Amino acid sequence: MNIKRIFALGLCLMASACTSLPGSAPRAFANTLGMSMVALPAGTFVMGSEEPVESLHKAYPLAENYRLDNLSDEAPAHAVRITQPFYMAATEVTVGQFRQFVQLSGYVPESIADGTGGYGYNAQYDASKSARGDAFEGRDVRYSWQNPGFAQTDAHPVVNVTWGDAQAMAAWLSKKEGRSYRLPTEAEWEYAARAGTRTRYHCGDDPTCLLAVANTFDEAAKPYWPQFAANALPGNDGYAFTAPVASFAPNAFGLYDMHGNAWEWTQDLYGEDYYAHSPVDDPRGPEDGNVYVRRGGSWHTWSLYARSSYRNWNSPQTRYTLVGIRLVMDAPAAN
Ligand SMILES: [Ca+2]
Ligand SMILES: [Ca+2]
């Protein structure tokens, strides 16, 4: 990755309220686990979307009306100020990084600790015959972060990990390095994904621009789920399941796979009407709730749901073939 180029493009892109890092703080560094942590400037952006249903219908003609009506939690679009620079991992947490964390810390991931396992892809599995109608087999002890039922190397994004697993990893890294790691807030996540853009994706408004920047549900994935064939992105991104992280072009902040590959847990509880009353400065989600926000879409996600503004959620115990982790780190305070 060309750090100079990224910062020429990305630093203070929003311009209106840029707070600089302390002079001694690096623009990017590799941490204990080899994660590339990239500095993002403070700034202001417009969070959410109020794109009319008619406009969405033109872009996503196959989406039923109820799906478009259900996007109302993305409104109102509203100004948000991220008041402090922070670091974000350039990629999703990889299988290799998660393995190092588990080995060095002794932490037992929830799918193993609670004895119920995770989810997995099984070509013989028939969703219509399952009690829950899930697209994947599970929970089953055969599946965990180590085995989602499809091939993965150490360079693939770890999946089948819970919100609690992410908390444990951040806490361990923080202690190990004397830094402050955590999940991004929902606002930080969208600010980072947009990297100064107002379009549906950081690559533009046309869903097919995803082919250059994201692993989503495309023609490579279509043969495995013929029932969803019509929703496949027209074009081939080369991956039916997860792709090694950073296989596609980054956004202007130098962040990879903000659309697709693995959904990313955020720190925030989900509030359907939260945008109507959230603070302008550093919103942190509602005080109460049962489910945490995940963002960005996955390798199995239709383009409608891979948009920068799309919000989804799960209970913190959820472990799934589509959901992974990306960490952020607070920038050190200026002396
Ligand atoms: Ca794909
Ligand atoms: Ca992702």
From TrEMBL:
GO molecular function: formylglycine-generating oxidase activity
Signal peptide stretch: 1-30
Designated name of the protein: DNA recombination protein RecF
Highest taxon, organism lineage: Bacteria
Keyword annotations of the record: Signal
Pfam families attached to this UniProt entry: FGE-sulfatase
Organism for this UniProt entry: Rhodoferax lacus
Sulfatase-modifying factor enzyme-like domain: residues covered: 36-328
PROSITE patterns: PROKAR_LIPOPROTEIN (PS51257)
